[in-house]
């Protein structure tokens, strides 16, 4: 209960004379908040004001002769809780550009959709599609301006422009890197283990798709914060195409059976 001395309140003289105050103390019910509040301030003075829930994901992308390949899982977590198994972690910026999500889902979704708007405005002003490098630079500049203000983002911007296929990594500190292979998220170390053993610049499309799919699967098998379905995208000169979504439960038994039969999952 909150208790107030009525003499601290601004009652008019007529209200006092009419006997509206029946006691020297007024009582009000506490608001239904997680942290009770008293007149002297918060009662939990030594507790951090913000909750820092652990969260994770696994995303990857690589460039080879047959195009750019992007693969992601679909699990959203908040601490020990799996809040969703069906999150779409690939943002379709335009028909030639894709962005991936790792970190805070709201941060990534909002700013990558905002990037989509900026890319469309660039196209209208300049009568040509924006390059992958320029799109990633716009996003990098935006998040850098919010550095230190709580954004949590680890994204990849992938696409095909008039200079060919490109892949860029952008995070919430403003870091922007160009490369041929990236994996981002809590399961990225497991994904790298598979990627590094199977990646080649001359991979045909079929093998590249299997490598991307298998890398995400192994990450979901070892990382509790990754799971759900594996979504694979293929970007070529004509634009991006979603290859499919594969439940990790089904992939697990598929790979177990192929290994039992003496066939390596990579198809080699």
Record the SSE blueprint.
Blueprint: E1 2-5, H1 13-17, E2 25-28, E3 37-38, E4 41-42, E5 59-64, E6 67-72, E7 76-78, E8 81-84, E9 90-94, E10 97-100, H2 105-126, H3 132-145, E11 154-161, E12 164-171, E13 176-178, E14 181-184, H4 188-198, H5 205-222, E15 229-236, E16 239-247, H6 248-260
Antiparallel strand pairs: 1-2, 3-4, 5-6, 5-14, 6-15, 7-8, 9-10, 10-11, 11-12, 12-13, 15-16
Walkthrough of the structure:
- 31% of the residues lie in helices and 30% in strands.
- With 268 residues, the chain is α+β, with helices and mostly antiparallel strands.
- The strands form 5 sheets. A 5-stranded antiparallel sheet has the order 14-5-6-15-16. Strands 9-10-11-12-13 form a 5-stranded antiparallel sheet, covered by helices on one side.
- A hairpin with a 2-residue loop joins β5 and β6 (67-72).
- The termini are far apart.
């Amino acid at each position: 209960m909150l208790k107030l001395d009525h003499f601290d309140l601004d009652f008019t003289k007529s209200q006092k004379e009419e006997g509206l105050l029946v006691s020297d103390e007024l009582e009000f019910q506490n608001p239904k908040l997680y942290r009770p509040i008293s007149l002297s301030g918060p009662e939990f003075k030594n507790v951090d004001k913000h909750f820092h829930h652990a969260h994770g994901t696994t995303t990857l992308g690589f460039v080879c002769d047959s195009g750019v390949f992007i693969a992601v899982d679909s699990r959203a977590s908040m601490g020990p809780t799996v809040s969703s198994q069906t999150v779409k972690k690939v943002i379709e910026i335009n028909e030639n550009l894709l962005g991936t999500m790792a970190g805070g889902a709201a941060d990534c979704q909002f700013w990558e959709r905002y990037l989509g708007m900026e890319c469309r405005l660039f196209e209208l002003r300049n009568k040509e599609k924006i390059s992958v490098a320029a799109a990633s630079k716009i996003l990098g500049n935006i998040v850098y301006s919010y550095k230190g203000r709580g954004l949590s983002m680890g994204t990849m911007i992938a696409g095909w422009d008039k200079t060919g296929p490109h892949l860029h990594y952008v995070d919430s500190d403003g870091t922007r890197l160009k490369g041929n292979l990236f994996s981002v998220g809590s399961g990225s170390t497991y994904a790298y283990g598979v990627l590094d053993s199977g990646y080649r610049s001359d991979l045909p499309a079929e093998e590249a798709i299997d490598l991307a799919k298998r890398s995400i699967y192994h990450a979901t098998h070892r990382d509790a914060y990754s799971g759900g379905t594996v979504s694979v995208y293929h970007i070529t000169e004509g634009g991006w195409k979603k290859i499919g979504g594969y439940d990790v439960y089904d992939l697990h038994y598929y790979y177990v059976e192929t290994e039992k039969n003496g066939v390596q999952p990579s198809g080699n």
